[in-house]
Amino acid sequence: MKKKLYIKYNEDDILEIVTEYLAKEHGFEEFNSRAQLLGTPGVDIRVVAVIGESKDDSVNDVNLNEMDLKTEYNGPHSKARYINPTKFANMKIEDC
């Protein structure tokens, strides 16, 4: 039996792992990316990322906060009921 492994990653480590995984999963060998963690842990934490070819400098022009507001969840678990933070802020009790 292997010993337990205790890990504590900071934001940069987490984002690097996520972007490298997503780039590989979507067929990018060399890539350019930007990513940001948003939300509150245990409530609505999420990663917003853009990945392009390594020479695609337009990746750097993407406003990740704006993308967060305009993009629906599209991850493998996104069939669960998630609420866009802007929609949530504007919801009325009868909308629940």
Describe this entry's structure for a reader.
This protein starts with 10 loop residues before the first helix and ends in a 6-residue tail after the last helix. The radius of gyration is 16 Å and the shape is globular. The model has no long low-confidence stretch (mean pLDDT 88). A two-stranded antiparallel ribbon has the order 1-2. The protein has one domain (11-90). The protein has 3 helices and 2 strands, in the order αββαα. By secondary structure, it is of the alpha+beta class. 29% of the residues lie in helices and 17% in strands.
Share in β-strands: 15-25%
Question: Radius of gyration, rounded?
Answer: 16 Å
> From the structure provided, what is the oligomeric state, counting identical versus distinct chains?
single chain
Distance between the termini: 48 Å
Widest sheet, order of strands: 1-2
Q: What count of helical segments does DSSP give?
A: 3
Count all strands and give the number. 2
The helix-strand sequence is HEEHH
Average pLDDT reading: 88
Largest sheet: 2 strands, antiparallel
Q: How many structural domains?
A: 1
Low-confidence stretches: none
Task: Name the shape in a single word.
Answer: globular
Q: Percent of residues in helical segments?
A: 25-40%
Structural class computed from helices and strand pairing = alpha+beta
